[in-house]
Amino acid sequence: MTGLEQLLGQELHRQRAADLERAAEEQRASRAARAARDEERRTGEAGEPASARGTGRRGRIAVA
Question: In the predicted model, is pLDDT for residue 1 greater than 70?
Fold first, then answer.
């Protein structure tokens, strides 16, 4: 293996490692966002009254 081939191999390895790290970070961010959405749904912290949850009136003003 020549010096150039070795350098190219090292660069390819660095690029693959960087790609894997980026993919792992994106996956962690996606999981964190999904967990936050699930937690918000579970606890009802969406800023709506408890009486409106689960009734289909989400975000609407009830007019009597």
Answer: yes
Look at the block and give the residue holding tokens 């980026």: 22
pLDDT (0 to 100) of residue 52: 55
The Cα–Cα gap between 35 and 44 comes to 14
Is 22 within the bounds of a domain?
Answer: yes
Average pLDDT over residues 1-15: 95
| pLDDT value, residue 53 | 55
pLDDT of residue 35: 96
Per the rule left: phi > 0, alpha: psi between -120 and 50, beta: everything else, 60 is beta
Residue 35 lies in a domain: yes
**Domain housing 28:** 18-43
Q: Over 26-37, what HEC string results?
A: HHHHHHHHHHHH
